[in-house]
Write the structure tokens for this entry.
Amino acid sequence: MSRISERFESLRRKGSGAFIPYVCAGDPDCDFTLRQIERLAKASADIFEIGLPFSDPIADGPVIQGAMNRSLSSGFRTKDVFGLISSSRMRRIDQPIVVMTYYNPVLRFGVASFCKRLAEAGGDGMLVVDLPPEESKELDGAARANGLDVVRLVAPSTADSRLDFILSRASGFVYAVSTAGTTGARVQLPASAERLLGRVTARSRIPVVLGFGVSSPSHVRAALSMGASGIVEGSRLISIYSDSLNDKDKALDLIERHAKEMKTATLLPERHNG
């Protein structure tokens, strides 16, 4: 059982869903990223999704695109993500870490080398958003050889026949995209999220988490009531700190406060009442 699987099993026993914050590596610099990870861990984040900056992030909305641009402008490069993860482990961050990336940086670095370095740094999995499972044989083999989970994306447009195929090649957890389009905070979860979660959880042998647009405690509670085992939040977190980067301590305080509210919302109702 991988560290990701162990974390979900532990949460299930505790009666809790997973709070998975997305952190853009190197935005606006590595020191702030490390401090942000520490604050999120203090707020009881369960798993970290570390975003590797890329110059053409087609799946991401303007907030995450802005974060990636700041990171790349400050000089962050692919190899730096391994040092970031290793430094997190040295700071006693023990939550599982999944690297979210586009395929181009992995391919340019070398698929086998990337997976090896990620595992050595203390990473636990990968989510390559633009690599379909039909074309990921090399990545799957390298990940498996290094003990890494490969998280897969499913969307409202995913047909049932293809859904079964994707699920058969997923490990760690499945990332359910709440709606068509790019990442970004939304006022409410779309109806497509509930329909998708119903279809995926009925078929999946591993936990299913909901992302894209999840940005408030009410969204968290709604996602869990629909059958999700957890949620991913990114754009809202970045929005919280991006306007306060002239006072980074204040920005980190705001992040931690919001993260605590999101994590509290992952507790099942009987845990709230108890």
